[in-house]
Amino acid sequence: MAAQTQRAVLAGGCFWGMEELIRRLPGVVSTRVGYTGGDVPNATYLDHGTHAEAIEILFDSERTDYRAILEFFFQIHDPSTRNRQGNDIGLSYRSAIYYVDEEQKRVAEDTIADVDASGLWPGKVVTEVEPVGPFWQAEPEHQDYLQRYPNGYTCHFPRPNWRLPARTKG
């Protein structure tokens, strides 16, 4: 049986650290970083307007699912800080989920509700949930950045023993 490849587009601060951690997940086929969710066509690092730094993920749905990717996403960045991750401040560094279909939107909203109910973060989730739009691939020097510079900047890391419980639905 042939693998079913699906697409996810996420923003959670600087795209270098997001890419490096997400690429290691079982079932992730490929990643690329770029700009999405904003107002500038053909966005670049020097001119990306209101776009977020984002990561496009292709994953094998027979080996992982969208929910598992979102749970990891919420573990490696702080979704309760608006327009900021670590030392990076501004609209480019916002937390956002760009869904490709209504099922991804439903899973995103359900996962956010679980994160909010869990109390794992100091505040409520401010992650935007929006339909995916154009994705402008970042320049070559931004792709695979931490592969080429293993000691380069990142503000993302897996939190030890972090496990998202499903909320009690009543």
From TrEMBL:
Keywords: Oxidoreductase. The active site is at 14. One of its GO terms (molecular function) is L-methionine:thioredoxin-disulfide S-oxidoreductase activity. The keyword Oxidoreductase applies. It catalyses: L-methionyl-[protein] + [thioredoxin]-disulfide + H2O = L-methionyl-(S)-S-oxide-[protein] + [thioredoxin]-dithiol; [thioredoxin]-disulfide + L-methionine + H2O = L-methionine (S)-S-oxide + [thioredoxin]-dithiol. The keyword Oxidoreductase applies. Residues 8-155 form the Peptide methionine sulphoxide reductase MsrA domain. Its EC number is 1.8.4.11. It comes from the Bacteria. Has an important function as a repair enzyme for proteins that have been inactivated by oxidation. Catalyzes the reversible oxidation-reduction of methionine sulfoxide in proteins to methionine. Belongs to the MsrA Met sulfoxide reductase family. This is Peptide methionine sulfoxide reductase MsrA. It comes from Streptomyces griseoaurantiacus M045. The gene is msrA.
